[in-house]
Specification:
- Helix 2 packs across helix 8.
- Helix content is 36%, strand content 22%.
- The protein is of the alpha/beta class.
- The chain has 9 helices and 12 strands.
- The chain starts with a helix and ends in an 18-residue tail after the last helix.
- Strand 2 and strand 3 form a beta hairpin.
- The radius of gyration is 22 Å and the shape is globular.
- Strands 1, 5, 6, 7, 8, 9, 10, 11 and 12 form a 9-stranded mixed β-sheet that branches. Strands 2-3-4 form a 3-stranded antiparallel β-sheet.
């Protein structure tokens, strides 16, 4: 009988411990939109300077990071309550559907295909496909001038294919593993131009080591409406994020974030888009 009592008591203690552990671990999941001191996990990019970058000292910087931090604050979370999680482009929908993140701010363009799987708040930035060239290069005045030029982008990039197929079919496409490699090639005159979203190009060009070396052409070859990705059907969270974005624009924080992250590249950004205004 004594053995059974001890076993029962131990079982009760173990059950309490497991319950406490389960409650504690939930604080590190997607979080909830009510705040209340819990943690919130937000998906971002960690390899795009000016957009979302994890620095060697473990800090996170970039326009998307600033937007995400502002939204989290409006949802009731302090900066210390935020757990930033890398979400690569191919993993974004899965991360949202699984609940790995509460929302994603990661140069996430709104399109019809993605809207089948997730919802978007915003948009909060209208970007365009553009090219980056050396600051002293005046030979490329239009997309057509890329014909016979060496055009760089990352392997599998839709941006490069868009130029090759629609704008400059004779461009010599050079595909590298990452944008940093393209920048090095551009600096060393191995390639003539780099193409992707202008916001991403501005972020790279704003890095201390590259300031003054490159310029954006300003071609606006496509419209990319960046939105905040969230679980499909979560209308309450979507409204709260939309309200936060509206406030960020109205109180001047949006403009401050643009200047802080893109200013050194002389990025001529569009005005903050109105919520729900998807530019085709």
């Amino acid at each position: 009988m004594q053995l059974r009592k001890v076993t029962a008591a131990s079982a009760a203690v173990l059950a309490l411990a497991l319950t406490a552990t389960a409650c504690g671990s939930s604080d590190d999941e997607g979080g909830d939109s009510a705040g209340g001191g819990k943690k919130i996990t937000i998906g971002i990019k960690i390899d795009q300077p000016g957009i979302g970058l994890k620095t060697p000292d473990g800090k996170y910087t970039g326009f998307d990071v600033d937007v995400a931090t502002y939204i989290a604050k409006e949802l009731g979370y302090d900066a210390k309550d935020i757990n930033f999680k890398e979400t690569k482009s191919a993993d974004r929908e899965t991360a949202i559907e699984r609940g790995d993140v509460k929302f994603i701010a990661a140069s996430y363009s709104i399109n019809d295909e993605r809207l089948q799987k997730v919802d978007f708040a915003g948009p909060y930035l209208l970007a365009h496909q553009d090219i980056l060239v050396r600051a002293d290069d005046s030979s490329i005045k239009s997309p057509a001038d890329l014909n016979s030029k060496k055009l760089c982008s990352v392997t599998g990039s839709t941006s490069a294919q868009n130029v090759k197929e629609k704008l400059a079919p004779k461009a010599q496409l050079q595909e590298y593993g990452g944008y940093s490699e393209c920048l090095t090639g551009l600096e060393n005159k191995v390639v003539d131009a780099l193409t992707t979203d202008d916001s991403i190009l501005a972020g790279f060009a704003s890095q201390k080591d590259f300031q003054g070396k490159f310029k954006l052409a300003g071609f606006k070859m496509s419209n990319e409406n960046y939105g905040i990705g969230l679980k499909k059907g979560d209308a309450d969270l979507k409204k709260k994020i939309d309200d936060a974005l509206t406030k960020m624009v109205s109180d001047g924080s949006w403009d401050e974030a643009v200047k802080a992250n893109f200013g050194p590249a002389n990025y001529k950004n569009e005005q903050a888009p109105k919520i729900g205004n998807i530019v085709k």
